[in-house]
Amino acid sequence: MISVISAGIAPGVALLAFFYLKDRVNSEPLSMVFRSFITGGLLVIPIMFLEYTFVIEGVGQSPFVKSFLLTGLMEEFVKWFIFLYTIYKHVFFDEHYDGIVYGVSISLGFATVENLLYLLANGIEYAFGRALFPVSSHALFGVIMGFYFGKSKFKRKHPKQMIAIALILPAVLHGLYDFILSAVQSNWLYVMVPFMIMLWALALRKVKLANQEKKVVHLDRRNKWTGTI
């Protein structure tokens, strides 16, 4: 039991630490990150209930609808909603990269509880594959969501459009991930591995851009404080 619990929790914590440590200037308070992580985990309960209800009622069970609407859109919407109403206007969300930290923490809280429940039901032998694909994909969707929330708040250009993209892009990518699993019956790894590589490249690009923006902001602040011209 202890080994299953450890295997269920470890990937989420490791990925959260990875993206947290990518925050090179003024890291976020661990209490806020932990609270976001726990909040994300609590979202699993209502989502699982809704998804189970749709299965029992036989509603929307075609691969496309189930992947893009009942899984991708629904799961990303609840994470987006929690971010928008608990993080977006918070005083600690004061720099672009902070959006990535909080987006990842909410997503990985969700992914960790989901992963733990799956391993408890199906066995520890699935731990490596779950860490490599579902858990890491949730983290990457969180990066993308948080990046566009940060862009909305600090770039000040088309903020409503950026908030919409913060939902739409992760939902589409999440739906595509699930659609690959449900529609590709054989040799699915030949499709999934390139997709995951693309997803990692996209997310790490967002991390780099957000960190560059953060450095510019801190340089401007330092120049104002020191009188540098």
Outline the structure in words.
- This protein is mainly α.
- The chain has one domain.
- It has 8 helices and no strands.
- It has helices spanning about 1-20, 30-40, 45-55, 65-85, 95-120, 125-155, 160-185, 190-225.
- The chain is globular.
- Residues about 220-229 have low confidence and may be disordered.
> Which structural class fits the helix and strand makeup?
mainly alpha
Mean pLDDT rating: 89
Helix fraction, binned, reads over 70%
Distance between the termini: 61 Å
Number of discrete helical segments = 8
* Basic shape: globular
Strand/helix succession: HHHHHHHH
User: What are the segments in which pLDDT stays under 50 over at least 5 consecutive residues?
Assistant: 218-229
* Total domain count: 1
Total DSSP E strands: 0
Characterize the main sheet. none
Radius of gyration, in Å, reads: 18 Å
What labels describe this entry?
229 residues, mainly alpha, Protease PrsW, Peptidase_PrsW_arch/bac, hydrolase, transmembrane helix, EC 3.4.-.-
